[in-house]
Design goal:
CATH topology of the largest domain in chain A: Pyruvate-ferredoxin Oxidoreductase, domain 3
CATH topology of one domain in chain B: Rossmann fold
Oligomer: heterodimer
Number of domains of chain A: 3
Number of strands of chain A: 23
CATH class of one domain in chain B: Alpha Beta
Number of strands of chain B: 12
CATH superfamily of the largest domain in chain A: Pyruvate-ferredoxin oxidoreductase, PFOR, domain III
Structural class of chain B: alpha/beta
Distance between the termini of chain B: 53 Å
Largest interface: A-B, 73 and 59 residues
Bound molecules: iron/sulfur cluster
Strand order of the largest sheet of chain B: 2-1-3-4-6-5-11-7
Largest sheet of chain B: 8 strands, mixed
Helix content of chain A: 25-40%
Shape of chain A: globular
Number of helices of chain A: 21
Order of helices and strands of chain B: HEEHEHHEHEHEHHEEEEHEHHE
Number of helices of chain B: 11
Distance between the termini of chain A: 54 Å
CATH superfamily of one domain in chain B: Thiamin diphosphate (ThDP)-binding fold, Pyr/PP domains
Structural class of chain A: alpha/beta
Chain lengths: 614, 339
């Protein structure tokens, strides 16, 4: 039959189903395929809060949202154009995320009596009660069609049902006119020698595709042309993976072996998983007995001359606090990564938040500053992880890198660099006695940085420790003046790093804008898009995004003071506002969301409009 | 670890800092024996690292002219683990106390032991918190009256070596500050063991817990209350070496050598885990009816793979299989495209 082809500039799809339905895999496959086709893509996996929630319940729903388009994108989209649901719980959890007159593609087998009851719809099937004016509903019995496709496969029902996500994927590839090749080769590499599974999955994938062609209910397909992205070599990357690669790159470029010590925690564990795969880069991973041990193992490795990293999420960082303090006073390079999640305490492990900012800045006893850097998007995690290592090693200091669950699990196309183009990393290792009084471990260079004499180096034996130390010898000192001097010099060393980092520039807008939106971290995409949209509508809005939180860029104060209004959107209860107000005496306007979810573009736009002079 | 050809003396391993323990503290003896052993073995100073936590004993690294970290309370086992992974060639000595190792750092200690890093652990047990001026510790006996337990401690104490055995330690020994010669022997043997060598040292805190181990150090009583272990030798003790230990099934019993032949005695075998476990259980008080002499020496020693070597082997194996990693292909991944 004749199918029409409709042009679209961008499309947002939300896949949702039970955690066993393969939703994340489906979403990732669609993203990879459409990225390879040349679209810009942003993704947002939304994991169920409870891993073992009962099947068919709202608590067990896993979601994956992605936006792809033919122009630059910065976020996975607000509301979806298409909502794919594998059961009634998935519909219940996500219908409010669908645009009005959006498309629902529902697996009708997931709307049987049992599922309707479990999801709380009761006896009424919402697919039959939702008004066609509001949404366009397409029911497909995906379970039955998958079973039919595999009737001769010899596989058991369980295995057959497990491949129904391939039907969905095949069908969406048809809808958006995408090739099956990427997913076919993925299936082949996933199942390797299990030929019967390869054949079965590809068969179902194709069945989904052909269903689109032959089914009478679908009359239109959509065309989303490739985006006009800058020239370069691209791949698709997730945030945690990018962080891991940034660490490996820093190890390779600095010539320092990498030791990554951590304790499993959501949402940081994937960094450990990724690094554990790269032992042939000399990467050593150590899964410690607890968070404290992970941080301490990293300090031990740093003392011995490795590039030492530890990572966690908020609760784990709290446990590492004392050890981070130790690395502050020892003045050893250490990178601490916090993949932030909702807090306090165990909080919301699978949800995103930016509420560990003040912990990063102040969460230790004593005057104990570390450098604090925040990444802003999945691929930016690579740059910031690399930079965190560079600063730690070049300035002999702990560096805290803040990412969050949203960017850690989200993905986007990444114009990856050539290794030769990455900046050099110079370390301070020494084998020389640096004074006529012998080796002085705390003698500093012009940047207030001490040298790094590692065990095994002849004649440079020295002792360091957590007690306050003498300005030069590093021996224990209780001298009052020496203590104040040491506190100040450790702080001055961090402050001086602002000479080595770029000045902050406006991402968008001009200096005479009516309001500056100052962001940090993963709010980047939503702010960038909101400011772009409003500027196109004629509003005078500017956007600046902070990477360096301690020390801050040297021109930040002047920049902020040149705007009449500064608006700071954050996924916390106004932590950056607190910092900016106290540091620059600027009455920044807070805009906060603490729901474990990222900002939508609409929310930011509305707040900017409210802030603008009427 | 390399061995120095220009022989150094014990003094060469000392720093020029004043040692700050209380006069008469058992720590002095331990410091001296460690320096002597390093000198005897001709260990190269720059290859040695002393790592400690917090407590009186943990000041130790400052007095050794080697590399050292005086770290944070209880965490030395984790620090040495990372250090050993970073550089397996270092000779690492961990200095800790009963509070540091068994209370605040208990978790790290058991994991260090099961992983079996090649490290020497010296646990200075003085059954008290000295640095914080005299609170009971996890090894203080029940009923111990201290500043924090004016009515006597109601904590059941640890048998530290039983804990170590439970964590599958591969080397377990005990010695005491008052027996320098024995201590040197044990330190030598511990340093020779490949794996985590756990040496408990009874150390007198003459300020806050003087005489805690008097039962075993008092010249008059010592012979009856202590049992010196020697591998392959029968368990004999007593004023005139006239007593022995015999096993009746799994039950150790004290026998009189006037009436029992030496041939019937328990022969110490460091490789026998079950017997070592029974020996470690010799933990009663001389006032107890079923008192058994307190053993000193090496209880147990076993060869087991060490963590850092296993890790290095994995790295080598993967590198052999996949080739040395190429950063550019890692960055490109397997699904790159060009615009
Ligand atoms: S308090 Fe006790 S253990 Fe500490 S130095 Fe003094 S005597 Fe030694």
């Amino acid at each position: 039959m004749n199918k029409t082809l409709e042009q679209k500039k961008e499309v947002t799809i939300l896949f949702a189903g039970d955690s066993g339905d393969g939703i994340q895999l489906t979403g990732n496959q669609f993203s990879d395929t459409t990225a390879l086709f040349g679209n810009d893509v942003r993704t947002f996996p939304d994991f169920p809060a409870e891993i073992r929630a009962p099947q068919g319940t709202v608590a067990g729903v896993s979601g994956f949202q992605l936006q792809f388009g033919s122009s630059d994108l910065y976020s996975p989209g607000d509301k979806a154009d298409v909502l794919v649901v594998m059961n009634s719980a998935a519909l219940k959890a996500n219908l409010h995320n669908l645009k009005s007159s959006g498309i629902v593609i529902a697996n009708s087998a997931g709307f049987d009596k049992k599922n309707l009851k479990l999801s709380g719809y009761g006896d009424e099937n919402p697919l039959h009660t939702i008004s066609e004016k509001e949404f366009r509903i397409h029911e497909i019995d995906i379970t039955k069609l998958t079973r039919t496709a595999l009737v001769d496969s010899g596989l058991g029902t369980k295995e057959v049902d497990r491949s129904k996500n391939m039907f969905v994927l095949g069908f969406l590839y048809w809808m958006y006119n995408r090739s099956l090749a990427t997913t076919e080769s993925f299936i082949k590499s996933k199942f390797k020698t299990k030929k019967h599974l390869i054949d079965a999955n590809i068969k179902v994938l194709k069945a989904g595709y052909h269903f689109g062609d032959t089914s009478e209910t679908f009359t239109s397909r959509y065309d989303v042309k490739p985006a006009d992205l800058p020239k370069g070599n691209y791949r698709s990357i997730m945030g945690n993976q990018a962080t891991a690669l940034g660490l490996v790159a820093a190890s390779q470029k600095s010539g320092l072996e990498l030791l990554y010590a951590s304790y499993p925690i959501t949402p940081a564990s994937d960094i450990l998983h990724e690094l554990a795969k790269h032992k042939n880069f000399g990467v050593k991973t150590f899964q410690a007995e607890d968070e404290i041990a992970a941080a301490c193992a990293a300090v031990g490795a740093s003392f011995a001359g490795n590039l030492a990293i530890t990572a966690s999420s908020g609760p784990g960082i709290a446990l590492k606090g004392e050890t981070i303090g130790l690395s502050v006073i020892l003045e050893l390079p250490l990178v601490i990564i916090n993949v932030q999640r909702g807090g306090p305490s165990t909080g919301l492990p699978t949800k995103t938040e930016q509420s560990d900012l003040l912990q990063a800045l102040y969460g230790r006893n004593g005057e104990a500053q570390t450098v604090v850097i925040a990444a802003k998007s999945p691929s930016d995690c690579f740059d910031k992880a690399y930079q965190a290592c560079k600063i730690a090693v070049e300035h002999m200091t702990p560096v805290m890198l803040l990412t969050d669950g949203y960017m850690a699990n989200g993905s986007e196309p990444w114009a990856f660099p050539k290794s030769a183009d990455l900046p050099e990393i110079i370390n301070h290792k020494t084998d020389k006695i640096n004074s006529d009084k012998g080796y002085l471990p705390y003698l500093r260079d012009e940047n207030l940085v001490r040298s790094w004499a590692v065990p095994g180096t002849k004649d440079l034996q020295h002792r360091v420790g957590g007690l306050e130390k003498d300005f030069l010898t590093g021996n224990v000192s209780y001298d009052p003046d020496n203590h104040e001097k040491m506190v100040k010099v450790r702080a001055a060393k961090i402050a001086k790093i602002s000479d080595f980092i770029a000045e902050i520039e406006l991402e968008a807008g001009t200096i005479d804008a009516d309001v500056l939106v100052l962001g940090w971290g993963s709010t980047f995409g939503a702010i960038k898009t909101a400011v772009k949209d409003l500027s196109e509508e004629g509003y005078k809005v500017a956007h600046a995004h902070l990477t360096f939180i301690n020390p801050m860029p040297r021109n930040l104060g002047a920049m902020l003071k040149s705007f009449k209004k500064v608006l700071i959107p954050e996924l916390n209860d106004a932590q950056m506002v607190h910092v900016i107000r106290s540091k620059y005496l600027i009455d920044a306007i807070p805009f906060n969301k603490i729901k474990g979810l990222p900002f939508s573009i609409e929310e930011i736009k509305a707040k900017i409009l409210e802030t603008l002079p009427s | 670890m390399t061995v120095n050809s220009n022989k150094l003396s014990a003094k060469d391993y000392a720093t020029d800092l004043d040692v700050r323990w209380c006069p008469g503290c058992g720590d002095y003896s331990i410091l001296k024996q460690v320096q002597t052993v390093l000198a005897d073995e001709g260990v190269v100073k720059e290859d040695v690292v002393f790592v400690s936590g917090i407590g009186c004993s943990s000041r130790f690294p400052y007095y050794m002219d080697t590399y050292g970290i005086h770290s944070i309370h209880g965490r030395a086992p984790a620090i040495v683990s990372g250090m050993k992974i970073a550089n397996p060639d270092l000779s690492i000595w961990m200095i800790t106390g009963d509070g540091d190792a068994l209370s605040i750092g208990g978790n790290h200690l058991i994991h260090l032991l099961r992983r079996n890093f090649d490290i020497n652990v010296l646990l200075f047990n003085n059954e008290i918190y000295g640095l914080t001026k005299g609170q009971y510790s996890p090894t203080s006996p029940k009923g111990k009256v201290t500043k924090s337990t004016p009515m006597g401690s109601i904590d059941h104490p640890f048998n530290p070596l039983a804990l170590c055995m439970g964590a599958d330690a591969t080397y377990i020994a005990r010695t005491m500050d008052r027996d320098p010669k024995h201590m040197r022997e044990i330190l030598n043997s511990a340093n020779g063991h490949k794996g985590t060598s756990m040496v408990e040292i009874y150390q007198n805190c003459n300020v806050f817990n003087d005489g805690a181990f008097e039962d075993f150090t008092d010249k008059k009583r010592k012979a009856e209350t202590t049992l010196y272990l020697e591998n392959g030798k029968p368990l004999v003790f007593g004023e005139n070496q006239n007593k022995g230990i015999k096993l009746d099934g799994f039950k150790p019993i004290v026998v009189d050598l006037d009436s029992t032949s030496v041939d019937e005695l328990w022969i110490h075998d460091e490789s026998d885990k079950i017997k070592a476990t029974i020996l470690i259980g010799f933990f009663s008080d001389p006032s107890d009816l079923d008192f058994l002499p307190r053993p000193f020496g090496v209880f147990y020693q076993k060869d087991r793979f060490i963590y850092e070597e296993a890790l290095i082997n994995q790295v080598a194996e993967v590198t052999k299989r996949k080739g040395k990693g190429d950063l550019d292909s890692l960055l490109a991944g397997s699904n790159a495209w060009t615009i």
